[in-house]
Amino acid sequence: MNHSEIRGKAIPEGFEPAIWCAKLGTPLYVYDADEMAKQVAAFKAAFSVEDLHIHYACKALTNINVLRLMKKWGTGLDTVSIEEIKIGLLAGFKPNDIMFTPNMVGFEEIAEAVEMGVRINIDNLPFLLRFGQVFPETQVCVRLNPHILAGGNINISVGHTHSKFGISFEQIGDIKSILSKTGLKVEGLHIHIGSDVKDAESFVKVADMLFDIAVQFPDLAFLDLGGGFKINYKPEDKKADINELGRLLSASFNQFCQKYGRTISLIFEPGKYLVSEAGYFFTQVNVVKQTPYVLFAGVDSGFNHLIRPMFYDAYHHITNCSNPDGALLAYDIVGNICETDTFAKQRELPEIKEGDILCFHNAGAYGYTMASNYNSRPRPAEALFMDGGLHLIRRKETLEDILQTQVELEFLK
Ligand code: LLP
Asked: Are residues 26 and 77 in the same domain?
């Protein structure tokens, strides 16, 4: 890595971390609307198929304002809980543009989603049968598991033989016998193999496997190839080449449609690809601590606000906004949680002083949405940078917010 890479990708033009953090406080999540719009447009432009749909995987970042932007930019939604569906409907998405892909939820939740008119994607045989019995002669999407290991980390690889997701490719016969018993019609087949998948070959291989199976289902309206497109976490990382992927997949999908005898829709469900790089997480340095062994910089946040480094051993690029040109020193960047919450080990950064603002890059996806109240700390504020201005889109939580759901027993008072 050269020095400019160590200093990190530039903070985008118009960003004023010092002013923003002074005004809204730290820690603070900021999302750049232009960057998200750019990614949506790049994704669309990469494919040349007649009927392409992008269903934004909103588990990555569910702020309702971001959902409204996605809607404005023409995406649908991929949802995994009844709550995500409800936020999507509130944001103005039409039920038909929302896909519900739950895993191990109760059947009541699926029935509630049917009531709301969203598309249902079922990923296990017992519920497919039950769905057919409760809603006979209706349409359903089926999530398949192709038994392929792909993804940046075993915890985010979900298409392998031992994954809890999807109906095994080896159980197609069982699916068909449920269809003939219940009159259910399969309107879509779905596969999602994992997150941080960088090689086009994995997607192409899975797509080809899906096309082979899809010809056996005569009522298809769409095929859904999921999300998982890798973005650059490290400056030297290779992100998924969306143009290459678009070229390869469009060609094989168009060929499939010819073989199938009619044109159907192609759906993708990117989360990270659309929002990760648009997100910046600003923290302030509380303490710089030199021990005989390690130089620590401790920030006013922890894995309660950004858990990816600790949970997935994920790399997040860090820049020192307050002293970008300082002399480089190696720091362990740690949080203020009473656990070993290390954001980065021995990371070279321009000299850090107490009060400096550190920025964690690529914090748009699975940052805020995976935050918690551990150590009884409030979750931070979120803001949207759009048209040259910064807009608060979620206030910082308070102690009252945290206490709100607790029930105080009178006899213990
Ligand atoms: N579709 C389905 C069915 C999914 O389960 C997911 C993500 C996506 C689409 C979107 O995947 P993406 O394009 O964002 O990679 N918390 C982890 C990632 C977990 C992904 C869960 N499912 C992380 O921070 O890396």
From this structure: no
Q: How many structural domains is the chain composed of?
A: 2
**Alpha-carbon distances, residue 284 vs 18, 197, 290, 316, 333 (angstroms):** 10, 32, 18, 16, 11
Residue 51 and residue 156 share a domain: yes
E-only strand ranges, 123-245 = 139-145, 167-168, 185-190, 222-224
For ligand 1, residues with CB inside 6 Å are 57, 60, 78, 101, 156, 192, 195, 226-229, 269-273, 308, 312, 365-366
- Domain membership of residue 237 (yes or no) is yes
Q: What is the pTM of this model?
A: 0.96
Which CATH number goes with the domain that contains 346?
2.40.37.10
- For residue 272, give the ligand 1 atom closest to its CA: 14
Nearest-CA residue for ligand 1 atom 8 is: 227
Question: 338 an active-site residue?
Answer: yes
Residues 230 and 267 in one domain: yes
Q: What is the mean pLDDT of the chain?
A: 94
Helix (H, G, I), strand (E, B) or coil at 90: helix
pLDDT score for 121: 98
Residue whose entry in the numeric block shows the structure tokens 């929302």: 98
**Is pLDDT at 158 greater than 80 in this prediction?**
no
pLDDT of residue 5: 54
